[in-house]
Design brief:
The protein contains 4 helices and no strands. With 118 residues, the protein is mostly helical. Helix 1 runs antiparallel to helix 2, helix 2 packs antiparallel against helix 3 and helix 3 packs antiparallel against helix 4. The longest helix has 23 residues.
Length: 118
């Protein structure tokens, strides 16, 4: 018996939107001088959940792109690269791109790679 994942897609989009809000809020409130490790973990977990959900629902563009942001967050939380304003700004831009990717996925339209800096 196959499960139709489409019945869960609305919930997926809602939860992903909330995850993007968590990422954005966490990044905006992250101190680059003294980053809070727990806050970085929280932001990372949101990205990780978004990536996993996107992969489950077959949205590979979202999953692949989010993986890149997740990797940077992982390096920062492990202390392998320092938290810096340019990195935080890049991650905030990534959140904006992810929102564009979700909008295209929800509308079942092609991704405008020029408009969202992909």
């Amino acid at each position: 018996m196959a499960i139709d994942l489409n019945q869960f897609s609305e919930l997926f989009f809602e939860e992903s939107s909330e995850g993007l809000d968590v990422m954005e809020s966490g990044l905006l409130n992250l101190s680059v001088e003294q980053p809070d490790l727990e806050q970085l973990h929280h932001i990372f977990r949101a990205a990780h959940s978004i990536k996993g959900g996107a992969g489950t629902f077959g949205f590979s563009a979202i999953s692949d792109f989010t993986h890149e942001a997740e990797t940077l967050l992982d390096l920062m939380r492990e202390g392998k690269v320092p938290v810096s304003q340019p990195r935080v700004d890049t991650l905030l831009q990534a959140v904006d791109v992810m929102r564009d990717l979700f909008a295209a996925a929800a509308e079942r339209t092609e991704i405008d790679r020029g408009a969202s800096c992909l």
